[in-house]
Amino acid sequence: MQRRAFTAMGTEVELLLDIEPGEIAERALDRAESEFERFEQLLSRFRADSELSRLNREGRLDDADPDLVHVVGLALAARERTGGRFDPTVHDAVVAAGYDRTFDEMPADRTGPAPSPAACGGSIRVDGRTIELGPGTRLDLGGIAKGYAVDRVAEVLGLAGPCLVNAGGDLAVRGGAWPVGVTSGLTLELSKGAIATSGRDRRRWRSAGAEMHHLIDPSTGSPAAGDLVSVTVVADSATDAEVLAKAAFLGAEVDVPHVLVTADGRTVLAGGLA
Length: 274
Prior knowledge:
CATH topology: T-fold
CATH architecture: Roll
Low-confidence stretches: none
Structural class: alpha+beta
Oligomer: single chain
Number of domains: 1
CATH superfamily: ApbE-like domains
Strand order of the largest sheet: 1-2-7-8-11-16-17-18
CATH class: Alpha Beta
Number of strands: 18
Mean pLDDT: 92
Largest sheet: 8 strands, antiparallel
Number of helices: 6
Order of helices and strands: EEHHEHHEEEHEEEEEEEEEEHEE
Radius of gyration: 18 Å
């Protein structure tokens, strides 16, 4: 088993490739790592030189990279599909809540006035390679960008052999059978498809004495309230799993296998899991 670990897209990435060591394995892992670096350069809101940051500053791109166009299109379709629970225009709401830099750079307890909600649901127009944002609209493609990158890298790495691509808990496999720990007492065996988790138990901080997290409820423009700590979804792709996990965290019913962890410590299996 060949393994490579590195940091990209604001999280820890692990690549597992089930072939013998050698030049083929190293080339495949090199290419997969380079793809993650390319997606970060394209889709990160934390990099001032990324294409997404350029779009957010200028409000319009006429020569957008095809991958950026595709991810924005996926995000728009996800917003429609989930009735607005998944919304790529939460950028200003996330920043208003205090998540205005990479998580590693954030203080655990922020001082200053209490955060105010920010409006979501801004307009986005995609026409060919042109992307145009409505007035005051900025995008945070975070989760769906990470899921998309995981899917694409799994396709690349899978050409060399059975593989698992894991980016901060969002993972996809190609070939083989892979045990995946979901909670401390639950492991799923994944032989195809992907898994993603949305939760308020990891990226959280305090601001003006209140506990905050990064999962914004677009209907309020503030971090989501409720009794769920996390939702883990199994789907055909990491992109879909990301969208459905966020929607389920915000109360949507999803018709795929999923695991809910509640604030009182219960683990609930749903969607055919038993």
